[in-house]
Amino acid sequence: MPGTIELIGQADFPPCACCGVPPRRVWGNLIDADGTTAYVVQWAPGTHGTHAAVIGLIFGAWGDGSRREDRSHVAVECRPGEDGLQLMIIDAAGSPVDATSLAATALRRNQVIDGPLQARVFNYVEQIRVQDGRVGGLIGA
Predict the structure, then answer these.
(1) Mean pLDDT: which of 15-19, 40-44, 67-71 is highest?
(2) Nearest to 42 by CA among 10, 84, 88, 66
(3) Which end of the chain has the lower number of beta carbons within 10 A, N or C?
(4) Share of the chain residues as helix, strand and coil, in percent rounded to the nearest 5
């Protein structure tokens, strides 16, 4: 069953040094039976694949009494490909989406691939792509 998307905010950044396009960032929450997962999406609009869109997912406890040490960060690169959207889990610590203020643990690619989080990560990326109108057409059709 799909979760509910809660749109929180968005921002534009100074132009990229290599292409001159200002990166855009949007963030929100995905709420489902597993609880709340915060997400951040960053991309450079109109670069047509020059830069990958990156989605950061922050898993763990939220609310009163929770701390950043209770949460982990996963990062996914999204690029348009010949057969649709290409997704690749990357090391969260090296991604453009810095979630250190929200999550104490930045998961490495090998900690997510073939583990219990992998299916959930790809499911959430698809839900964000479909339900968050701010990014849907920008990270694949």
Answers:
(1) 67-71
(2) 10
(3) N
(4) 15, 40, 45
Answer whether 134's CB lies under 8 Å from 112's CB.
Answer: no
Q: CA distances (Å), 23 to each of 15, 18, 55, 124, in order?
A: 7, 12, 13, 22
| Residue 48 pLDDT grade (very low, low, confident, very high; cuts 50, 70, 90) | low
Identity of residue 140 = G
E strands present in the chain: 4-12, 24-32, 35-43, 53-60, 71-81, 84-90, 105-106
